[in-house]
Amino acid sequence: MHKICVIEGDGIGKEVVPAAIRVLEATGIPFEFVYAEAGDEVYEKLGVALPEETIETALECEAVLFGAAGETAADVIVKLRHILDTYANVRPVKAYKGVKCLREDIDYIIVRENTEGLYKGIEAEIDEGITTATRVITEKASERIFKFAYELAKDRKKEGKEGKVTCAHKANVLKITDGLFKRVFYKVAENYKDIKAEDVYIDAMNMYIITRPQTFDVVVTSNLFGDILSDGAAGTVGGLGLAPSANIGDEHGLFEPVHGSAPDIAGKGIANPTATILSAVLMLRYLGEYEAANKIEKALEEVLSLGLTTPDLGGNLTTMQMAEEIAKRVEL
Ligand code: NAI
Ligand code: MG
């Protein structure tokens, strides 16, 4: 029995999470879903966006499945990632058949450092009209994120991938912080002689994910750069409705779509559940349920290629109808 903390959150979070749960239940794996609250609505109600009770539930469950928060996202999801110490934010970028993508051979993973960098939240107004933000890069956090990236490349190599890690940084300008980041990257590389290591500047990387995305395997970068790069990358394989993510630490795993609460389409039942379903697939792999994970991914591929999708991908199904099409195939 896997005990999962489920946080639907706000907006389309309340639509895409039930869709993913429907598909998870179709696998026949026994789950205990423990529902917890977070986000704008709870803030309105209780004056706190991430209640203590939710934190406790998240800490005691085997994994967390999260939908989206609205304006309180920073107080909810960024805080939760810190509390659970999920230092690696894993964002697969993969072209599925039936989805309009830049190329059909795109298949790489962005690993974003999740605990420091510019998102450490150290901001100040040092004088009137003068503000600063402190960018924190430590050897310890860099070392563990690079180790994670190399291990991931090692696993993917076993599945026939190239076995390469690309580090994206800006060490030519951010000489001290990214100087350290780059140095640690090559130091960790010494323990992974069978994996190729290369580094590129983040601005050039932003172009390469468009001009030659097929050449990447595992891409590792710092917090803010990874946030920006991965949304752009999502755009090359069908948009935010398809982009999943996993937040992984040594003790906890939190799985969530990259998108937010999408207030422009919330309540209409037309949100694409794919990103959340793929996040649930990442969760299944984290739980060691590989067979079920592969089964869902295969069912999803079939549904996408048949055009049985929500309107953002040109189909005419609702969120739940699309989930139902996938669940049906998983149950077969
Ligand atoms: P968003 O991701 O919610 O939406 C951006 C655009 O993508 C919108 O046009 C939306 O309709 C579309 N979209 C997103 N998910 C979709 C899906 N599953 N199917 C079809 N279309 C989809 O980002 P936005 O508009 O910048 O922010 C809206 C709210 O979400 C804000 O309050 C923001 O703070 C919050 N947010 C929360 C995040 C989180 O909880 N992890 C992440 C990003 C934003
Ligand atoms: Mg983002």
Describe this structure in words.
- The protein is α/β, with parallel strands linked by helices.
- It folds into two domains: 1-98 and 249-332, Isopropylmalate Dehydrogenase, CATH 3.40.718; 101-237, Isopropylmalate Dehydrogenase (3-Layer(aba) Sandwich), CATH 3.40.718.
- 42% of the residues lie in helices and 20% in strands.
- It contains eleven helices and twelve strands.
- It has helices at residues 13-26, 40-46, 52-60, 73-83, 139-158, 177-189, 202-211, 223-235, 274-286, 290-305, 319-331; strands at 2-9, 31-35, 63-68, 88-94, 107-113, 123-127, 130-133, 164-169, 196-201, 218-221, 244-248, 253-257.
- It has a ten-stranded mixed β-sheet with strand order 2-1-3-12-11-4-5-10-8-9, with helices on both faces. A two-stranded antiparallel sheet has the order 6-7.
- α1 links the parallel β1 and β2.
- α7 (202-211) runs parallel beside α8 and α9 (274-286) runs antiparallel to α10.
- The longest helix has 20 residues, at 139-158.
- 49% of the residues are buried.
- The mean pLDDT is 97.
- Magnesium ion binds at residues 227, 231.
- 1,4-dihydronicotinamide adenine dinucleotide binds next to α4.
